[in-house]
Amino acid sequence: MSVAAHGVARFLILLALSAAAVAVVLFLTVDERTGDALLDIDPKYIGLFLAIWIAALSLDATSIVLFTRGTEERIGFFAAVKTATLRIFFNIITPFGFGGQPFSILSLKREGIPAGKGSSIVIMKLVTLSAFTQAGAIVSFLLYHRQVETMRFLTTLFLVTGSLGIVFVVLLISGFLYPHFLVRSLTTIGKVLHSVRILKSTLNLKRRIIHEAVVARRSFRRYFSHHLGCFIGGTLFNGLTYFTQLVLLWAILFGLGIEIPFGDALVLAAILLFLIMFMPTPGAVGFGEAFFLLLYARVIPTYLLGVALVLWRFFYHYLSALFGAVSSSKYASEMIVGKAK
């Protein structure tokens, strides 16, 4: 089975598992009022959800374009969209959501961007988005701590996730500040990729990695010395992407006729996105559903909880991942194993 076909198969398995989790939620929450509520949804709100999804994906792609320019390379907008959907696809089919970063580098390489510079682009995007996610969660926790403190499990998980996030960002930055650490990490990743037959050969692997690590470190430093505008622009669009993802949950509640202050909706969404950031299951399946129920049980009527969960999962995760799966099936196997030399 090719890498692309294997990824699509894992995505289908993930969908099945997620559908099973959602089915349990629907079984426990749906009653005769659910059907009436669904019939009352104005179709224009579905258009609103789609518009927000398009805006989030476009902002995501624009940040890739700007971070790429900061490395003195160029990438087209639609190629950046393809890279973004591939990242989302591989993020949700791999544990802890780590699979999207290597595949983003490979996607950028296919667009003519050297792996070293691609690494700089991907890491810079990941670090800034993680910073927004953690900052948003901390502010939200401070604003909403009285409600969350009654659920000790969530409070403990919040602290653990926050610690993991800080360690993760520190390790990423350390990789660029200390090249030996970066080379060792990339060499280990290369050997793992070879063991699962994603890389054909490890011959001269360390030499190539040292070269790309030097390029990556140089590109990373030039963001601040020569291309500060691209860094600020990419970071700003990353922040707008994050904000749009928060707004999506508010829009879903609004479309279902659930009245909740805009600020409260953003706070709950920020905590939810933070909690699922480092979950061990692909796509945070199971955990995402559980956290959604714990956070929103007091806000959403029981008979609408399952419907809101389905809409959030579809527009936040699976719609983009479906496009990523299509892109993967078209060229991921060629990108990974077909032309390696």
Description:
It is a single chain. The chain has 341 residues and is mostly helical. Helix 3 packs across helix 6, helix 4 runs antiparallel to helix 5 and helix 8 crosses helix 9. It starts with a helix and ends with a helix. It has one domain. It is 81% helix and 0% strand.
Tell me briefly what this model is.
With 341 residues, the protein is mainly α. It has helices spanning 3-29, 32-39, 43-69, 77-92, 100-110, 115-149, 152-177, 179-195, 205-225, 228-255, 262-275, 287-296, 302-338.
Attribute tags:
disordered C terminus, 81% helix, 0% strand, mainly alpha, 341 residues, globular, 13 helices, single chain
How many DSSP E strands?
0
| Helix-strand pattern | HHHHHHHHHHHHH
Number of helices: 13
Radius of gyration: 21 Å
If you average the pLDDT, what whole number results?
78
Indicate the multimeric state: single chain
Low-confidence stretches: 335-341
Helical/strand content category? mainly alpha
Largest sheet: none
List the topology elements.
Blueprint: H1 3-29, H2 32-39, H3 43-69, H4 77-92, H5 100-110, H6 115-149, H7 152-177, H8 179-195, H9 205-225, H10 228-255, H11 262-275, H12 287-296, H13 302-338
Helix pairs in contact: 1-13, 3-4, 3-6, 3-10, 4-5, 4-13, 5-6, 6-7, 6-9, 6-10, 6-11, 7-8, 8-9, 9-10, 10-11, 10-13
